[in-house]
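Severity: low
Component: inverse-folding endpoint
Summary: output formatting inconsistent between runs
Steps to reproduce: submit the following structure tokens with default settings.
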């Protein structure tokens, strides 16, 4: 195995993977040969349609609807996956939400939800799988952070705090598992046009008093020197590389895939 991973026989769990970046990573891992557990909210029909689409790659693809805000639901997801697939070799902590608001008006419930989903769910997942990965001597834990793990923007207090925290967790886990063949890394995307980004455009327009078109041009793409959105496939390719043997010595780090945003 080299730079591009053959993941035949590996089992992967990807949180928040019925849409956007998580779904792109699911496609990438399944095409590389991994069995995949998808997770997300949404209707039974939508989830089944997504499951079937990913399963077209020919590997075993399961769906688990655990609410990642709830530690006991996360435990259930891990237990059910072990029952159905045996081991868990790859975990992608991808689930995340956003809320845009000035700090003095930031809803307390949104703060709690963002911390629970964008940070604590990665802790609960990692805590549950680390022991078995250590025993098996192989594992990949990939945390989807953000350019906002490295730099801040106004009106995103909870998100920026959670993503900075996620990178701290990544470093600690990387160190703890370093001698056991298990790596833990973060990927920090710039703006990717997914439902998460589309949904914050109207609120950003309101908070800054500008139009939605101006948000895209003057806020989102203004941040990225390439003046292009990052694609879901580019994030999936980075995750795939981290799963390869070529990346076995990369651990505890944070890989920016952000069109040069955080180089500025
Ligand atoms: P998205 O909104 O397209 O997808 C989110 C997924 O999470 C969906 O599958 C949804 O069903 C699921 N989900 C939401 N709440 C859940 C819950 N409580 N329990 C279980 N699943 C739940 O989001 P995205 O843009 O693909 O973002 C994925 C990750 O990438 C997030 O962590 C986000 O912060 C990060 N990110 C995104 C961008 C971007 O520009 N889109 C940039 C940097 C980082």
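Observed output (run 2 of 3):
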């Amino acid at each position: 195995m080299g730079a591009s991973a053959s993941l035949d026989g590996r089992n992967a769990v990807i949180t928040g993977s019925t849409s956007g970046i998580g779904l792109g990573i699911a496609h990438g891992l399944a095409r590389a040969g991994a069995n995949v557990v998808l997770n997300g909210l949404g209707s039974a029909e939508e989830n089944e349609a997504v499951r079937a689409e990913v399963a077209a790659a020919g590997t075993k693809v399961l769906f688990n609807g655990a609410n990642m805000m709830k530690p006991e639901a996360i435990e259930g997801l891990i237990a059910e996956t072990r029952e159905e697939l045996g081991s868990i070799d790859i975990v992608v902590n991808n689930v995340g939400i956003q809320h845009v608001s000035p700090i003095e008006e930031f809803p307390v419930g949104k703060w709690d939800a963002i911390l629970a989903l964008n940070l604590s769910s990665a802790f609960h997942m990692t805590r549950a799988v680390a022991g078995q990965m250590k025993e098996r001597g192989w594992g990949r834990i990939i945390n989807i952070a953000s350019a906002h793990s490295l730099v801040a923007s106004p009106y995103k207090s909870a998100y920026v705090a959670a993503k900075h925290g996620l990178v701290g967790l990544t470093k600690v886990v990387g160190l703890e598992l370093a001698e056991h063949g298990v790596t833990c890394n973060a990927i920090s995307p710039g703006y990717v046009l997914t439902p998460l980004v589309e949904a914050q455009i109207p609120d950003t327009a309101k908070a800054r008093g500008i139009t939605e078109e101006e948000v895209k041009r003057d806020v989102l793409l203004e941040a990225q020197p390439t003046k292009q959105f990052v694609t879901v496939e580019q994030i999936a390719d980075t995750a795939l590389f981290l799963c390869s043997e070529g990346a076995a010595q990369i651990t505890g780090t944070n890989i920016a895939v952000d069109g040069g945003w955080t180089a500025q």
